[in-house]
């Protein structure tokens, strides 16, 4: 899965030190995350099969499920004891931190899915339940990077997507991608601890973009932008250009009140 992820991310435009999750999230409309495809296809085929069994069949499947779940819980490496479609399903759930010890009730934090195998909608419901969880966990992984604090609740990619579409030159596109993916070398992603531009210790992304006197393209923010920065302080926005989803309503209002060009600058 790691190799598949890497291959798909490279196809989607991942740069050398860039984050796989970020590029797969940004290009989710054009490129599908291979993990998402595998999990949703598995759950769909399993429940399409389950839908054909009668009540006794579902009860037998539940018994198997409970036994398998216990065996997986006891195993050190879950996948090594997976033997069939039910145990694979249980292991996918365990990988996603979904509590599925009761086959008819899947729980992920405050989200609960009651499984009703006789209803036609079960395939769609299970699939969308897991899709949401996979997306949630991807966002959390993105937000766990030191330069992307605040992105854990999801990111609105409208502006980055528009920027990437609107530029014609390859170099600019590459530069934009480097910013969004956090691939500018700094001490949080494998870069050196001492800044090679000014000799300062502590090459954080913030140092490079806003504090370093010698970094090419470093910015001195004008006062009105600094005021906005105080209002919306998340690092993911100022260091990576990732707008946290929770700001989307505010951003829409700002976009309505200003003209497009000014909004893009903001
Ligand atoms: Zn510096």
Highlighted features:
266 residues, mainly alpha, 2 domains, three-stranded antiparallel beta sheet, 55% helix, binds zinc ion
Please mark out the parts with pLDDT under 50 across 5 or more consecutive residues, or reply none.
Answer: none
Reading side by side through the largest sheet, how are the strands ordered? 1-2-3
Number of helices: 13
Distance between the termini: 38 Å
Which kinds of small molecule does this entry bind, naming each only once? zinc ion
Topology pattern, helix = H, strand = E: HHHHHEEEHEHHHHHEHH
- Radius of gyration (CA) equals 23 Å
Global shape: elongated
Strand content is 5-15%
The count of strands amounts to 5
Tally of individual domains = 2
Q: Helix coverage percent of residues?
A: 55-70%
- Calculate the mean pLDDT score and round it: 87
> Strand count, sense and closure of the main sheet?
3 strands, antiparallel
Q: What is the SS-derived class?
A: mainly alpha
């Amino acid at each position: 899965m790691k190799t598949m992820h890497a291959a798909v991310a490279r196809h989607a435009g991942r740069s050398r030190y860039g984050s796989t999750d970020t590029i797969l999230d940004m290009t989710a409309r054009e490129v599908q995350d291979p993990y998402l495809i595998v999990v949703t296809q598995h759950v769909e085929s399993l429940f399409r099969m389950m839908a054909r069994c009668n009540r006794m069949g579902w009860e037998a499947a539940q018994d198997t499920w409970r036994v398998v779940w216990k065996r997986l819980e006891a195993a050190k490496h879950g996948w090594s004891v997976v033997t069939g479609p039910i145990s694979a399903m249980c292991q996918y759930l365990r990988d996603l931190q979904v509590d599925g010890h009761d086959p008819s009730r899947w729980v992920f934090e405050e989200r609960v899915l009651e499984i009703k195998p006789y209803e036609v909608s079960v395939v769609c419901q299970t699939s969308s339940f897991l899709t949401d969880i996979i997306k949630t966990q991807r966002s959390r992984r993105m937000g766990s990077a030191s330069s992307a604090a605040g992105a854990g609740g999801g990111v609105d990619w409208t502006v980055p997507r528009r920027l990437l579409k609107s530029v014609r030159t390859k170099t600019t596109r590459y530069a934009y991608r480097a910013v969004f993916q956090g691939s500018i070398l700094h001490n949080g992603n494998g870069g050196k601890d001492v800044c090679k531009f000014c000799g300062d210790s502590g090459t954080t992304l913030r140092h490079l973009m806003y504090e370093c006197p010698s970094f090419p393209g470093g910015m001195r923010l004008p006062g009105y932008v600094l005021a906005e920065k105080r209002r919306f302080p998340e690092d993911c926005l100022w260091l990576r250009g990732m707008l946290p989803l929770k700001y989307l309503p505010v951003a829409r209002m700002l976009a309505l009140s200003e003209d497009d060009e000014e909004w893009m600058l903001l």
